[in-house]
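Milestone 3.1: sequence recovery, worked example.
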C-alpha cells in the first residue's frame, strides 16, 4: 500500500536495507579480537607522526576537488561546498601504521563512506576502489573495506581543520586497516570491477593490510 510508507523508508534506509539484503558491503573479515585494542607488533605513541612520499601538496579549499569516476551511477566532481553539503558525521578511532606506531582516540569529522556511497551509488559490478591523491599517491581498497561503518572522508581532526601535513583539506580514514590505506590529499575515487595494486601495494605492501593479522607485506 503506497499510503503505508513509513518515515524510515527514506532513500537512505531503503539503500541500507538493500545493502544488507545483498550482503554487498559486508565486512566482518577483520580478525580483531574483542579484547585486544593494540594489534600485534604495534606500540603506542602520543604524538602524531607525519609519513608520506615527501611532497606535501598545498591545496586550498577553493581549489580542492574530489572526482568520482568508474562504476558508479552518479559520477560527480565535488567541490568544497558540495562536499560540505553531504551529511556530516563525527567518529573516534585508532590509527595503526605499518611502521609499528599506533595512536588511540582520534576525533574526526567528515562524510562517512556510507553516506558518500549513497550519494554516488556504485554499480553492482563495483568491487574495489582506487584512490588517487594530489601528490600522485595511489592506494586500493576492496569496496567492502571502503564501506566499513567506521570509514570516513575527513576534513577535521580534534575540532580543527585537518592540517596540510596530515592530508588537508581532505583525507580518507579507514581505521580497521593499516594507515597507508588512508589516503591524504584525496583527489579522486575510481570504482573498479577488480582490486588492483596502488603505490605501496606495487612496492611490496599487502593488498589488504589488516593489522590484527599483520598483513604488512606481500608474501612474494
Ligand atoms: N597522499 C598520500 N597519502 C598517504 C601517504 C602518502 O605518501 N601520500 N602515505 C600513507 C602512509 S604510508 C601513512 S603511514 C599515512 C600517514 O599519515 P599521517 O602523515 O597523517 O600520519 O598516510 C598514508 N597516506
Ligand atoms: Mo605508512
Amino acid at each position: 500500500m503506497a499510503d503505508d510508507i513509513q518515515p524510515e523508508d527514506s532513500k537512505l534506509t531503503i539503500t541500507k536495507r538493500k545493502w544488507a539484503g545483498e550482503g554487498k558491503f559486508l565486512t566482518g573479515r577483520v580478525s580483531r579480537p574483542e579484547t585486544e585494542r593494540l594489534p600485534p607488533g604495534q606500540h603506542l605513541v602520543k604524538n602524531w607522526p607525519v609519513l608520506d612520499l615527501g611532497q606535501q601538496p598545498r591545496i586550498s579549499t577553493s581549489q580542492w576537488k574530489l572526482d568520482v569516476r568508474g562504476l558508479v551511477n552518479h559520477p560527480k566532481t565535488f567541490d568544497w561546498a558540495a562536499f560540505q553539503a553531504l551529511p556530516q558525521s563525527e567518529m573516534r578511532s585508532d590509527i595503526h601504521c605499518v611502521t609499528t606506531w599506533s595512536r588511540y582516540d582520534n576525533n574526526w569529522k567528515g562524510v562517512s563512506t556510507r553516506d558518500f556511497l549513497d550519494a554516488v551509488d556504485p554499480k553492482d559490478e563495483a568491487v574495489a576502489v582506487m584512490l588517487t591523491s594530489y601528490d600522485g599517491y595511489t592506494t586500493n581498497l576492496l569496496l567492502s573495506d571502503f564501506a566499513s561503518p567506521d570509514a570516513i572522508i575527513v576534513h577535521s581532526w580534534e575540532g580543527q581543520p585537518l592540517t596540510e601535513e596530515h592530508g588537508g583539506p581532505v583525507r580518507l580514514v579507514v581505521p580497521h586497516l593499516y594507515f597507508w590505506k588512508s589516503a591524504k590529499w584525496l583527489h579522486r575515487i575510481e570504482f573498479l570491477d577488480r582490486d588492483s595494486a596502488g603505490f605501496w601495494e606495487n612496492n611490496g605492501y599487502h593488498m589488504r593490510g589488516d593489522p590484527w593479522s599483520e598483513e604488512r607485506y606481500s608474501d612474494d
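The first strand starts at residue 43 and ends at 44. The pocket of molybdenum atom (ligand 2) is lined by residues 51, 97-99, 179-180 (CB under 6 Å).
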